[in-house]
Design goal:
By secondary structure, the chain is α/β, with parallel strands linked by helices. It folds into 2 domains: about 10-140, Rossmann fold, CATH 3.40.50.2300; about 155-220, Arc Repressor Mutant, subunit A (Orthogonal Bundle), CATH 1.10.10. The protein has 11 helices and 5 strands, in the order βαβαβαβαβααααααα. It has a 5-stranded parallel beta sheet, with helices on both faces.
Length: about 220
């Protein structure tokens, strides 16, 4: 019997530390909506960051510099270097950059960094890339903009992605799918069978859940 393809993206577990609660919650929600990134914990100060790292063992850290009790820089000095950390701060001077690098950070970004760039930075850090040289950061980010999906999700055709997007937005009847895509109902069923195999799901409801997880409902 053929083993079904795993239907999960290649997940990168992220821990975010920032003492601005609104910023922390917004960033966590935004990053967690990206198909290959999962926010496993947040921390509001350096001491909580150290404890959360020990508990969750994330793949990548996003850390603010200025936090109460223990600063982000001080916390990084206490943490194992094998967990790559990207400092995300509003203080982007050379002195702060040097402090972050000396503490073991692999990246140094502004809090004004757009979400797609931040997601790319997470992927780059997880892949062992450095994001400390301002002149080289854009090139590094460009190499890591695409979500890292498993083989099944990555092999979806354009038509299969269209069907999944419709499923995710509530269109599930065979005749409705056929009408919207200008194809026959038999062709719809053939596409669905291939989708089920690629995503290791058994019905349209499960396929819709996976479409949302993969972010296909946001495709334009």
């Amino acid at each position: 019997m053929t083993k079904p393809l795993v239907n999960q993206p290649i997940m990168i577990d992220v821990l975010i530390a920032d003492d601005h609660r609104l910023m922390l919650e917004s960033l966590a929600e935004a990053l967690d909506s990206i198909p290959d990134i999962r926010v496993v914990a947040t921390a509001g100060d350096g001491a909580a960051l150290i404890e959360a790292v020990r508990r969750h063992r994330p793949d990548v850290l996003l850390v603010d510099i200025e936090m109460p009790q223990v600063s982000g820089i001080a916390a990084l000095r206490e943490l194992p270097n094998e967990i790559p950390a990207v400092v995300v701060t509003m203080h982007t001077g050379q002195a702060e950059r040097r402090q972050a690098e000396a503490a073991g950070a692999v990246g140094f970004l502004s809090k004004a960094t757009p979400l797609p760039d931040l997601a790319a930075a997470v992927r780059a850090a997880a892949a062992g890339e450095m994001l400390l040289d301002p002149d080289a950061i854009a090139e590094v980010l460009d190499r890591h903009r695409a979500p890292q999906l498993d083989a099944g999700a990555a092999s979806l055709t354009a038509r299969e992605r269209e069907i999944l997007k419709l499923l995710a937005t509530g269109v599930s009847a065979t005749d409705e799918l056929a009408d919207q895509l200008y194809i026959s109902q038999k062709t719809v069923k053939n596409h669905l069978a291939r989708i089920y195999e690629k995503l290791a799901v058994s019905d349209r409801a499960q396929a819709a859940v996976e479409a949302i997880r993969l972010g296909l409902h946001r495709d334009r």
